[in-house]
Amino acid sequence: MTQVNNTAVIWSIAGSDNSAGAGIQADLKTIQSFSTPEQPLHLCTLVTAITAQHSSGVDACMAVYVELLHLQAMALLKDAKPSVIKIGLLVNAAQVLWLADFLQQLRKSLPDLLVMYDPVAISSSGSTMAEPDLYQAVVQHLLPHIDLLTPNLQELEALTQSPDTEQAVKLLLNTGVKAVLVKGGHAEATLCTDLLFISENFRYLGYPAYTNYIRLSSTRQQHHFNHGTGCCLSSALAAALALGYALEDAFVVAKTYINQGLSQPVAITECSGTLGHWGFPAKPEYLPELLTDKLLPPAQAFAPLKAALVLYVIVPSVAELERALVAGVKTLQLRIKSTNPQQLRQQIQQAIQLCQHPDVQLFINDHWQLALELGAYGVHLGQEDINSANLAALQQAGLRLGVSSHGFYKLLRAQQLQPSYLAIGAIFATQTKEMTGKLQGLQKLARYPALFPDIPLVAIGGINESNAKAVLATGIRHLAVVQAFAQATDPKLWVQQMQQFITEAQHAY
Ligand SMILES: Cc1ncc(COP(=O)(O)OP(=O)(O)O)c(N)n1
Ligand SMILES: Cc1nc(C(=O)O)sc1CCOP(=O)(O)O
Ligand SMILES: [Mg+2]
Fold first, then answer.
1. From CA 272, how far away is CA 56, in angstroms rounded?
2. Could you give the domains of the chain?
3. What is the pLDDT of residues 75-89, one digit of tens each?
4. pTM for the whole structure
5. How far is the CA of 205 from the centre of ligand 1 (A)?
6. Ligand 3: distance of its center to the CA of 485 in Å?
7. Residue to substitute in 368, 403, 433 for testing ligand 1 pocket (most ligand atoms within 8 angstroms of CB)
8. Do residues 290 and 413 make contact, with C-beta atoms less than 8 angstroms apart?
9. SS in 3 state form for 218-258?
10. 274-318 per-position pLDDT tens digit
């Protein structure tokens, strides 16, 4: 059967928690919370066990026969195939063996399928739900079929017999698992820290290898309404992956979702309850702190922009810069990719001179040393450039800084520098630059303004007069363009039209 719209189908292969904080019930709530009419998510379930639970323990756990697991899977396949499978509670070796074999067969027809396993065996109250031989069977048979494993610290040690996190993760990655998210929720600390290790095999999703793991941390919320938090972190990750986020961005989204849910929990009694499921997170205070990949920010924030960016035109030469100025563009970037050093200096110097006007803002792309030496207004740097640029010197000289980003992870990374603006791309396919990561699209773009309200955000990549209104409807107020301006036959009219779209959006939304 053909799937007819853009609904992403997720399967949860897990146990029923009748108290509805964890297990299949938590997966349903979490996935539903991320579903929208524009990007619907549909969660199907394969129940592996029925448990009898309450806030302080598990009274009973009965495994579902493998034959019935198989029938559930066959029934689901009659309707639709999943793009993501999230596995939770497995109870015995027989279930593991069936699942390993089933996944091996399924992958033959679904090469892009993502399989996650949250190896729950012990509930947060300490009750064991699995049979003693479970993990042995998991390591031997199931792990080679898993893309992303999400153990807590206790499960990590039980799976590997290693108390050392890095060593344990190495052992798991050697079994064929492609990424491991170690959940630190159970550690006794004032911070809740989660670690994501991504092997080379997962990098195709766009992760830049600045470090070999990502550490995200948030202040621990001191209350008892947290039953199922680990399950929900894994399901939020499944939802974000099904929505098309790259793994590192899905990690940020999932942790932000958990922070939002724990900030507004559902209290059932004085000492029992669950986190709340309140939709895609939308407040900056829920964002975690990025503890790895630390940049060395200057002591102070970069100077603010002297005016809003609004329409931001990027040009490859001084001749094009003059054309843009004549057409009425007020925010410009000189982006020269190939020329000899002498001409480069000359071009940058000329551009700075041409833009000596109180209403005009000129950013120099890449060449921060010349920008600094020649007294430019601002520079625009990419994520790699900020590793090596002398940021303190740029800040102290009063230059404005704009930084590229391509998702939540890179936004968190760049935000550490307190730049003058952040660019987000590529929104649509572009012919101007070879992009390796995932496109943002309008749905993802619409999530950023609420989470990064204190810094100007400019959208870039494939933007033109036909799609500008749709981009502005996401709440983004600044548009950067290369090709659309270069190809405009009447540049003045084109600039007026684009500026009008932006002004209308400012008043309309
Ligand atoms: C406004 C704006 N956003 C993003 C970019 C891309 O910058 P960078 O990542 O440094 O890539 P190159 O432009 O150097 O290819 C930009 N230039 N401007
Ligand atoms: C230079 C550049 N940077 C991008 C990013 O996402 O960082 S996209 C891009 C190209 C933008 O050109 P056009 O408007 O012609 O699509
Ligand atoms: Mg650059």
1. 8
2. 8-290 (3.40.1190.20), 311-508 (3.20.20.70)
3. 999 998 999 999 999
4. 0.95
5. 20
6. 19
7. 433
8. yes
9. EECCCCCCCCCHHHHHHHHHHHHHHCCCCHHHHHHHHHHHH
10. 899 999 999 999 999 999 877 888 999 999 999 999 999 999 999
